[in-house]
Amino acid sequence: MITETSSATKEKGREIVPLAQEFRRIPLANIRDPDDPVRTAKPDEEELFNLGDSMLSDGMIYPVLLEPVGENFFEVVIGSRRVRAARYREQLDIPALILEPQNALTRLLLALAENIQRVQLEPFEEGRNFLRLLREFGLSTSDIASKVNKPTAHVKERIQILSLPDDVKKMVMDGEISIRNAAMLARVSDNERQEALAIESATHRLASGELRRRVHAEIGVDGESTRVIPYNVTPEKFAARTEEFARWFKRAIPRLKLGETNLGERTLMIDALNVLEEKVRMIKSLIKHQKTSHRKKA
């Protein structure tokens, strides 16, 4: 007779450490906002009223997360808007999960992941927090993407657009320019040219491909004529593409000041070089394989 054995009896699982200590109602007078919140934009009165009304009528579906910062006092880790809305509606307390004390990186990741998944963060707020993770905590863009459950390109684009001038940022926020196009504009070093290209893109509704061609023309890269894609690859295009990379490195290396970069930025550059090295090895392997195949045929 065959009997089933539970997996718990076969293998001892790893010990689970609870993130939260307890769930209880906390007086609002005992709660303070974080010193460096993920969201810098303050909600307006209408938003606070609507959120507070929803909390009163539907109840708190998601309790706030608090961390103890002293005897009977707490700091918000997740839920600053809900705390403000409760205060606006003159509530006395709010249901909360009390966390074990967390380090600064864990607090930031918790707050950022919550805001990205549940509340649509502005792209520049995302970028500022991603940049903080990169600079203060030494995370790479792929590390950040993994921790907030977003593609690496999402993280890179939002960091890149932080360098845009205010007028172009406003065009992004107003929906006149997509974030992808804004990230392309960030490759142009001159702010006036960034603004001119942004206005042109918004006015004429330039497609991403057309804007890319204009940006490449600005920075001295012939992006379309040398781009190598599987169905139109030729030896000439492949050679032109590799020469383009070589020219870019020759221009970039003298301007690279490693002494002025922090650990996170150096880590990002090393990660990029490692990826590049891997691709170069792949190309070398393909070339070697081709040579071997030709010898066998001969």
Automatic annotation (TrEMBL):
<feature type="domain" description="ParB-like N-terminal">
    <location>
        <begin position="24"/>
        <end position="116"/>
    </location>
</feature>
<dbReference type="GO" id="GO:0007059">
    <property type="term" value="P:chromosome segregation"/>
</dbReference>
<dbReference type="Pfam" id="PF02195">
    <property type="entry name" value="ParB_N"/>
</dbReference>
<comment type="similarity">
    <text>Belongs to the ParB family.</text>
</comment>
<dbReference type="InterPro" id="IPR050336">
    <property type="entry name" value="Chromosome_partition/occlusion"/>
</dbReference>
<dbReference type="GO" id="GO:0005694">
    <property type="term" value="C:chromosome"/>
</dbReference>
<dbReference type="InterPro" id="IPR036086">
    <property type="entry name" value="ParB/Sulfiredoxin_sf"/>
</dbReference>
<protein>
    <recommendedName>
        <fullName>ParB-like N-terminal domain-containing protein</fullName>
    </recommendedName>
</protein>
<dbReference type="Pfam" id="PF17762">
    <property type="entry name" value="HTH_ParB"/>
</dbReference>
<keyword id="KW-0159">Chromosome partition</keyword>
<dbReference type="InterPro" id="IPR003115">
    <property type="entry name" value="ParB_N"/>
</dbReference>
<dbReference type="InterPro" id="IPR041468">
    <property type="entry name" value="HTH_ParB/Spo0J"/>
</dbReference>
<dbReference type="GO" id="GO:0003677">
    <property type="term" value="F:DNA binding"/>
</dbReference>
<dbReference type="InterPro" id="IPR004437">
    <property type="entry name" value="ParB/RepB/Spo0J"/>
</dbReference>
